Amino acid sequence: MTARGTRQGLDAEDLDVEEALALVKDGNGTARPADGRSPAQREGGGHSTSTSSSPSSSSSSARTPETGHRADAVGHRHQETSWPEARKIAAHAARSGAARLAPVSVPLGDALGLVLAAPLTALTDLPSFDTSAMDGWAVAGPGPWHVREEGVLAGSATPVPLADGEAVRIATGARIPPDTTAVLRSEHGRTDDNGRLHPTREMQHGQDIRPRGQECRSGDQLLRAGAVVTPAVLGLAAAAGYDTLAAVPRPRVEVLVLGDELLTEGRPHDGLIRDALGPMLPPWLRAMGAEVIAVRRLGDDAKALHKAITASGADLIVTTGGTASGPVDHVHPTLRRLDAELLVDGVKVRPGHPMLLARLKEDQHLVGLPGNPLAAVSGLLTLAEPLLRTLAARPAPEPYALPLRQSAHGHPYDTRLIPVVLRGDHAVPLHYNGPAMLRGIAAADALAVVPPGGARAGQEAELLDLPWATAGIDACFT
User: Fold this and answer.
1) Which terminus, N or C, of the chain has the lesser number of Cβ atoms within 10 Å?
2) Could you count the other beta carbons within 10 Å of the beta carbon of residue 474?
3) pLDDT exceeds 90 at position 118
4) What is residue 190's three-state secondary structure?
């Protein structure tokens, strides 16, 4: 796991139990970490939350939505964005004409999970001819009936018309012979010693016949543009005569993993740690509807980061770590060098407050995730998910809430996201929810949104579903 982007800045609310025990009180009774720095100094990976800036910073500032300026060269931030507002900004960031992805024609086999770019209109009547709804006999007139020797199977040519008093064996889905009165189900008929067919219960005219156009007529709108292509939609499209669908393509995402301390295999050793985000982020992004075109490990190299960003053709670039103001945290300096527009520079959420969202070009954005794993998940759901949803033209999920079975500790001023499992009509907070931990989220069904100050037992909390918790692993990775 990597602690890049937040390893220099944790306040008391972000600390693990062992770290919290290391806190000491200063003379005024204010909680202060053992290193002597105040929570404000440590918050956001060394970024101050003060709104003031030094005189020398004005020449290197850049724009934010609130102030028209970007984080200055020494790393001071203007007011961090609230969690709900950050999600709104991310959702609206790609709504310009240039940022919208042009529709493409996609074979049915590749369309699962995409969004329809045009209404799905029936190309034929459904069914396209009168068909049998059951296995049995097609009969004409009142019984009993003389049964023809030949039967009618699905896919056969137009059958010979029936005369009154005639019946013919018929399979489900087979074309109904002309002049058929009804279909008698196999279990509702019997033959006598003379081979004549008798009904064993009363029949209705037209019984068990699916008439042509019962489901739709050619030209009927079956689904609106914007519908997500599910397995059922694929079946409907095929039945309605489609081989391809006009759909919004998956947004292309490139992941840049930063940090010299990261191992790609084996156990941690000699100050080196395993990279948890490289294996975790690509499938998570795919679960959110993205196409991950590359995962690059760049280490702590400002030139490599600049080159990778400028050479990328992705719709969204996701970086891990390096969002703080330490000597090897190169994301902010690189964004200033590229004259990127910083839309979100820090969010009032724990974990993950040093996250950022920048517009590199009108049709290209960058989400900077903190390096701590759970903090990165927070950034993924706060900034990347709304942006990708807009790019893919996917509808926003309906918000929902459940009462908490236990109280949830909160941050004094910021929103807090904590892993929970769903048990009946309650959400149960999980332990191991520190910013560097994945043990809680690995067992979770959702993340609970805990307001500043915390939530008591029984209080309802908004929930953010994890895509695989309800759909299953195979269903969500499309």
Assistant:
1) C
2) 8
3) yes
4) strand
